[in-house]
């Protein structure tokens, strides 16, 4: 299954995901908005589209936290912090 949208294509947003279909998990591995498009809500729109995709397909969305300051970007979207086996990541259930 592939995830692609007009926003991601138009603004060259880098959004690498891995889908575990049997487990119904979508991992967001890399997410980067080009510098010239930052602070224009392109990242928020792109993430909302991925959240909608996961919701429509019943996937739990997970991501590792690369930088602590980025955590604040994800929390308003309904992500919850999880600590498991000394690893911290964020989870968004498909509700």
Notes on the structure:
The protein is an alpha+beta fold and 95 residues long. The protein has one domain: 3-Layer(aba) Sandwich (Aminopeptidase), CATH 3.40.630. It is built from three helices and five strands, in the order αββαβαββ. The radius of gyration is 13 Å and the shape is globular. It starts with 5 loop residues before the first helix and ends with a strand.
Relevant terms:
single chain, alpha+beta, Aminopeptidase, 5 strands, globular
Gap between N and C termini, in Å?
A: 20 Å
SSE pattern, N- to C-terminal? HEEHEHEE
Biggest β-sheet: count, sense, barrel?
5 strands, mixed
Question: What average pLDDT do the residues reach?
Answer: 90
**Strand order across the biggest sheet?**
1-2-3-5-4
Main structural class: alpha+beta
Low-confidence stretches: none
| Helical residue percent band | 25-40%
Give a concise summary.
The chain has helices spanning 6-10, 42-57, 71-74; strands at residues 14-20, 25-32, 60-64, 80-84, 87-92. By secondary structure, it is α+β, with helices and mostly antiparallel strands. The longest helix is centred in the middle third of the chain and has 16 residues, at 42-57.
């Amino acid at each position: 299954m592939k995830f692609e949208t007009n926003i991601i294509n138009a603004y060259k947003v880098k959004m690498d995901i891995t889908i575990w279909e049997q487990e119904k998990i979508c991992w967001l591995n890399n997410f980067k908005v080009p510098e010239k498009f930052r602070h224009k809500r392109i990242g928020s729109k792109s993430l909302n589209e991925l959240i909608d995709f996961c919701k429509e397909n019943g996937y739990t969305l997970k991501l590792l936290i690369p930088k602590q300051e980025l955590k604040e970007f994800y929390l308003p979207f309904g992500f919850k912090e999880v600590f498991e086996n000394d690893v911290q990541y964020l989870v968004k259930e498909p509700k």
